[in-house]
Amino acid sequence: MAILHVRVTPRASRDAVEGFDLEGTLRIRVTAPPADGEANAAVTRLLAHALRVPSRDVVLVSGASARTKQFDVPLSLVEIRSRLG
């Protein structure tokens, strides 16, 4: 299990996992608006799809109303980096 730090850009033109920045934070863009948890749900689905794990295994730990979030995923950081390319 690993805690993954994610920086989210809501209302983007497309859904995309952009990769890791210099601090090790994963940057993600989603088309969903940040209202009513829609962006959080979209990020969870996108992360699960990109990491090839079920959506139920990607859990938002903190940052529900912030752009920087932490997700608990059932993979090591090495596995995460290799799956995201």
What is the average per-residue confidence, as pLDDT, rounded to a whole number? 96
Shape verdict: globular
What is the β-strand count?
Answer: 5
Please state the CA-atom Rg, rounded to the nearest Å: 12 Å
Note the main sheet: 5 strands, mixed
- Unreliable spans are none
Structural class by secondary-structure content: alpha+beta
Individual helix count: 2
Protein architecture, described:
The structure is a single chain. The protein is α+β, with helices and mostly antiparallel strands and 85 residues long. The chain has one domain: 2-Layer Sandwich (Conserved Hypothetical Protein Mth637, Chain: A), CATH 3.30.1200. Helix content is 26%, strand content 32%. The protein contains two helices and five strands. It has a five-stranded mixed β-sheet, with helices on one face. Strand 2 and strand 3 form a beta hairpin. The longest helix is centred in the middle third of the chain and has 14 residues. The mean pLDDT is 96.
Layout: helices, strands, pairs:
Layout: E1 2-9, E2 16-20, E3 26-29, H1 38-51, E4 59-62, E5 68-73, H2 77-84
Parallel strand pairs: 1-3
Antiparallel strand pairs: 1-5, 2-3, 4-5
Short structural summary:
With 85 residues, the chain is of the alpha+beta class. It has helices at 38-51, 77-84; strands spanning 2-9, 16-20, 26-29, 59-62, 68-73.
